[in-house]
Amino acid sequence: MNIEGLDYNTQREKLVLPEYGREVQDMVDYAQTIADKEERQRCAETIVAIMDRMSPQNRENPDYKRKLWDHLAIMSNFQLDIDWPYDISGATQIAHKPEPLGYPMADIPVRHYGKMMFELFEKLQNMPEGAERDELVRQTANQMKRNLYQWSNGSADDEKIASDLARFTNGKIQLDLETFKFESVDINPSVQQTVSKRKRR
Hints:
The chain is an all-alpha fold. It has helices at about 20-30, 35-55, 65-75, 90-95, 115-125, 130-150, 160-170, 190-200. The model has no long low-confidence stretch (mean pLDDT about 85).
């Protein structure tokens, strides 16, 4: 439905700095059309004053004035011909968007143990027998129980943990459940609420 004089933000040009709104961007666009440089200078200073009033909390920052002028330069695509009170060459770094960070997608057999646990499984396979390996086995098994408890509605079967530990270490680590004692699972209240909700479903 097209109504004369009515348009939507989705139909408009994308804002360079949305935090200042379309009205300020329109002011910046208008300032670039002013032929007289003195009038253009006054217009730019007025725009910066308006931007300043929109973000009074930033006045505590020592370089907030410079940042306002940098933002004006960005919104004008560095085309506004005025006498800039600050060097705006650094504004290009603000305008440049960083590349998105790559998310590590680890190929692990089961997600509830997590990537770090599988790194421990790998380490346990190559460790020589001794007190150090025994301690790492103890910590790994107890962490597996905590992870499983959180992912399986408050249930963590000891035999399953022993079976998983043997399977994911290629049989190198065998828990003797007659002698091995797991620590009691202690989770924070927010996780306990989540577990309780899962049980009620």
